[in-house]
């Protein structure tokens, strides 16, 4: 326990409520957070007064309040993941000599939020602000491999959801599921010429404290560059694992190869 136990308890309540799909009863909250019921009652009432918790008396349940939403909105505005990743991406590029980027899932697309281009390498389509079909990109595959199967199914309800760029890549849910299963077993995603002919990418997912994929770290290179794909993948994994730890998440073992699975 920290030197400020009340603050620790309040943060545990917030973290627990944030991870729930619906408001919960006081008894469940107290049990999950590890507090006596009376202590939990007084704590949540203080948090209600400050706007971080809301009480739904008709349902006898408690959920997140508006102040918690304001904190989350502030987090999004400050873009800490991008700030944390900028120097790490630069180090990744220096280490492997290839371009790297950070992308987040946005519907069925990935949105590129950071890019570090290696000196002397050609420009890529994955510039900051660009969206590309997630199922064709290594970043998108790395992220979707960590999503619950029903969420992936909701994103791709039928074949019309699969955009075709160059006649390559999965064009059905079953094909995508197979690809994502391989990605999970291997620990990193790959694509070869499906976004841009002649270029390949590998990527690893950054996970938040709930184990939810927050972003994908990818390395892209010309396929004729003779690059060592597994080594580039391990470098992307190390960067993703570092970011996972910095945002309070816990990820896969770093450096796991196809042969080790």
From TrEMBL:
<comment type="function">
    <text>May be an activator protein for the gylABX operon.</text>
</comment>
<keyword id="KW-0805">Transcription regulation</keyword>
<dbReference type="GO" id="GO:0045892">
    <property type="term" value="P:negative regulation of DNA-templated transcription"/>
</dbReference>
<feature type="domain" description="HTH iclR-type">
    <location>
        <begin position="4"/>
        <end position="66"/>
    </location>
</feature>
<keyword id="KW-0238">DNA-binding</keyword>
<keyword id="KW-0319">Glycerol metabolism</keyword>
<dbReference type="Pfam" id="PF09339">
    <property type="entry name" value="HTH_IclR"/>
</dbReference>
<dbReference type="GO" id="GO:0006071">
    <property type="term" value="P:glycerol metabolic process"/>
</dbReference>
<dbReference type="Pfam" id="PF01614">
    <property type="entry name" value="IclR_C"/>
</dbReference>
<dbReference type="InterPro" id="IPR014757">
    <property type="entry name" value="Tscrpt_reg_IclR_C"/>
</dbReference>
<dbReference type="GO" id="GO:0003700">
    <property type="term" value="F:DNA-binding transcription factor activity"/>
</dbReference>
<dbReference type="InterPro" id="IPR050707">
    <property type="entry name" value="HTH_MetabolicPath_Reg"/>
</dbReference>
<keyword id="KW-0804">Transcription</keyword>
<protein>
    <recommendedName>
        <fullName>Glycerol operon regulatory protein</fullName>
    </recommendedName>
</protein>
<dbReference type="GO" id="GO:0003677">
    <property type="term" value="F:DNA binding"/>
</dbReference>
<dbReference type="InterPro" id="IPR029016">
    <property type="entry name" value="GAF-like_dom_sf"/>
</dbReference>
<dbReference type="InterPro" id="IPR036390">
    <property type="entry name" value="WH_DNA-bd_sf"/>
</dbReference>
<dbReference type="InterPro" id="IPR036388">
    <property type="entry name" value="WH-like_DNA-bd_sf"/>
</dbReference>
<dbReference type="InterPro" id="IPR005471">
    <property type="entry name" value="Tscrpt_reg_IclR_N"/>
</dbReference>
<feature type="domain" description="IclR-ED">
    <location>
        <begin position="67"/>
        <end position="249"/>
    </location>
</feature>
């Amino acid at each position: 326990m920290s030197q400020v136990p009340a603050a620790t308890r309040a943060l545990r309540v917030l973290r627990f409520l944030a991870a729930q799909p619906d408001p919960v009863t006081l008894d469940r909250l107290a049990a999950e957070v590890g507090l006596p019921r009376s202590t939990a009652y007084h704590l949540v009432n203080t948090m209600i007064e400050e706007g971080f918790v809301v009480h739904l008396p008709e349902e006898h349940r408690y959920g997140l309040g508006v102040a918690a939403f304001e904190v989350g909105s502030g987090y999004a505005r400050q873009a800490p993941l991008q700030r944390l990743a900028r120097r790490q991406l630069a180090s990744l590029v220096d280490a492997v000599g290839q371009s790297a980027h950070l992308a987040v899932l946005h519907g069925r697309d990935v949105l590129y939020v950071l890019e570090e281009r290696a000196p002397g390498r050609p420009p890529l389509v994955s510039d900051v602000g660009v969206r590309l079909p997630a199922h064709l990109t290594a970043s998108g595959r790395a992220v979707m491999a960590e999503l619950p199967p029903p969420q992936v199914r909701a994103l791709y309800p039928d074949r019309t959801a699969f955009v075709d760029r160059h006649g390559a890549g999965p064009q059905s849910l079953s094909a995508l599921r197979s690809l994502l299963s391989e990605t999970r077993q291997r620990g990193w995603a790959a694509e070869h010429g499906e976004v841009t002919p002649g270029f390949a990418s590998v990527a690893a997912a950054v996970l938040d404290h709930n184990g939810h994929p927050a972003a994908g770290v990818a390395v892209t290179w010309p396929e004729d560059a003779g690059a060592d794909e597994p080594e580039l993948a391990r470098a992307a994994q190390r960067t993703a694992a570092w970011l996972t730890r910095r945002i309070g998440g816990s990820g896969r073992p770093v450096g796991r190869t196809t042969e080790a699975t």
